[in-house]
Amino acid sequence: IRTDHISTSHHTIPYTLMTVPALRVQCSAAGRAGAFHLRAPRHVVFQAPAGRAGLWKREDRMDGDRRDTMTVRAGDPDSFESSGTDAAANQGPPTLVWRVFAALCYLVPWIDSISFGREIYRRFRNLLVLYLVPGPLAKVYFSSQFAPLIIFFVLFLAVVKNKKLHHFVRFNCMQAIMLDIVIMLCHIVKAYLPAEIKWSVIAHLVDMGMWTTCMGTVVYAVFWTLRGYYADIPFVSESVYHQVALSEYA
């Protein structure tokens, strides 16, 4: 490649003499540049502002976009952090009032399990205290055959599905209902036992085992509830978590 100058009456114009291979290389480079410009987008997505004033304007615009953007986040029913007016009561650990309220829900399975302890109360007189604690409420609970059903719907609709209450209360209320359902199933199984077993020593052993299991589970749940912890019962608490979570969106 050699560069010379052509002199005219006004000024000198430089020109370049190229060999054929060098001319081909330059033409191919120009073709690639033209193709790149054709593939380039027509709209500018981002352009750096010129000067400090432009940078301030861009930051103000980005702050406005963030304020106008609404973030939707699924709430965790097991977390104390919540958003919204309905979940305002779920903030913070449960107070003493919430813990006592949640523990009172376990009176329902407590009342249903005391009938298994006839043999226990006869042999161990000191355990009659567990029979006398829910005594006045037991009369109301067994006053009618529809009373347990009415109490079930009242607890489920007024407590479990009430999102204004603390999640700790709703969880324990639902767990008390699930425990009561399990105890009622034990009563049904016992009622259909053969007469040879129902009026034998085996029935006394079955009653003692059922009373120990049911009453021990209820006392365990009440103990941890009064301390402000979630009582984890195998095979029951997991189902309770799902039920309370579904009630959030029902």
Model description:
Helices cover 61% and strands 5% of the residues. The chain has 12 helices and 2 strands.
Can you give the mean pLDDT? 74
Distance between the termini: 82 Å
Strand order of the largest sheet: 1-2
The ordered H/E elements are EEHHHHHHHHHHHH
Class from secondary-structure proportions: mainly alpha
Shape assignment: elongated
Could you tell me the radius of gyration in angstroms?
A: 39 Å
Uncertain spans: 1-25, 35-50, 68-83
* Sheet having the most strands: 2 strands, antiparallel
How many E-type strands? 2
Helix proportion range: 55-70%
Instruction: List the total number of helices.
Output: 12
Q: Short summary of the structure?
A:
This protein is mainly alpha-helical and 250 residues long.
Would you spell out the secondary-structure blueprint of this structure?
Elements: E1 2-7, E2 12-17, H1 20-39, H2 51-68, H3 96-104, H4 107-113, H5 118-123, H6 128-132, H7 135-141, H8 147-160, H9 167-191, H10 195-198, H11 201-226, H12 237-247
Helix pairs in contact: 3-9, 3-11, 4-9, 8-9, 9-11, 9-12
List the main descriptive attributes of the protein structure presented here.
single chain, 250 residues, mainly alpha, two-stranded antiparallel sheet, 2 strands, disordered N terminus
